[in-house]
């Protein structure tokens, strides 16, 4: 196992390129006209098929940005972005050791322009955007071919998704800061070497425009699998975008359309490690990982390696990097809520371990937490370590082919509740929230049982339900909340180097552009201000949820 902490990445200028199966087909800067693309694909139809397929397969391909020669274990597309974005938050805690490739996120040194982590998080979505642009431009704008229209609609939705993986991290929330600079938009015919940042409003309106097209043109589309995007997923993406823009009623309406035909996972279904198979009925959209993709060292660059405690060939269990829940949030989860057991308690116990066996070792149940593999591929689990994410190939498997959820129906319930609450329909919002939690997570639940406001109660539910799935930082920023990882004079499980709080308006919360981007794109004006956080800073800050 490659267990080194590498911070920098030798790479050339940030250029929009395609993924491995199609990167020989188009100019590296992606600056090709629509006529040229259409001419090329008409001559060789398989080329557009490869491009369309690559639009999905590259989403979590190991080494998609750094390449196999670099062998970066923290480079697995949108999965690594989810880990990064949650590791920069308050609830997802990793160890501070030389095996944690995401320590730059924990300490927030991920603003350094020369580091690999921010480059990967910037380049991957723009690579995706380049592929989407190629798919869209490969067909005549006025085509009547229904299959082509469906492909174009999916590319519009995927492009919106990619921009949504960038926009929240380079600017504060759109609703309150519409004129702030956000990120460049790769419009048709743009000069990539002189492409200034668009405003928040411009970026999010562009996202909505893409999703409007997708919702309209995916009507009637029946996808071959849940890795592709259908109309309900497009509604779900637009619900997210409307939430980000403060379009509360529109967000609730879109979430309502998106969830039709889906049911949340039951209490029984989440009473064992799961969230690893795309055929889970509550998944609306996800990534299908194949065994071939994670053979050899590539298996280390995967969500199973980093997030699941149950991989016998990964970083989490083998290097004491099983992600933990912040004890501040854990202590707020009622004992009657099944999600309390998605993490080990202070004594490293959880009912989710009952009935499990680690491979064929004979190590079973609660003994799994403290069992140490004689070969060193599993160490003791930490207190509050997560057992939420299972393994598609089985507990204690060495095959890290677990799938990944991009969208679950549970999120739609929470978006609907928030949209209703903030558009003045508080009673209906409480009804939606209580229906979901009481029926699928905690039969004893009441939304008014705590002293939290309804808005903070909904955020609390999001933080618990969507833990580890990459939502925290975007939520924190769009809600205008401070980053609160610890309270003064309260026991914490946050490592000293990561133990700090930050004001909601701290400029350091905004990502910086990779040096490869601002060296190549001369029109970039970088984010400035703020400082690398110091341990123990801002101990009096509170967020309304973990108070």
Largest sheet geometry: 2 strands, antiparallel
Distance between the termini: 41 Å
Structure classification:
mainly alpha
Q: Within the largest sheet, what's the order of strands?
A: 1-3
Q: For the CA atoms, what is the radius of gyration?
A: 22 Å
Rounded average pLDDT: 92
Number of helices: 18
Q: What is the tally of beta strands?
A: 4
| Strand residue content | under 5%
**Shape assignment:** globular
- Order of SSEs, N→C? HHHEHHHHHHHEHHEHEHHHHH
What oligomeric state best describes the polypeptide chains here? single chain
Low-confidence stretches: 1-30
Helix content: 25-40%
List the defining traits of the structure above.
globular, two-stranded antiparallel ribbon, 547 residues, 35% helix, mainly alpha, disordered N terminus
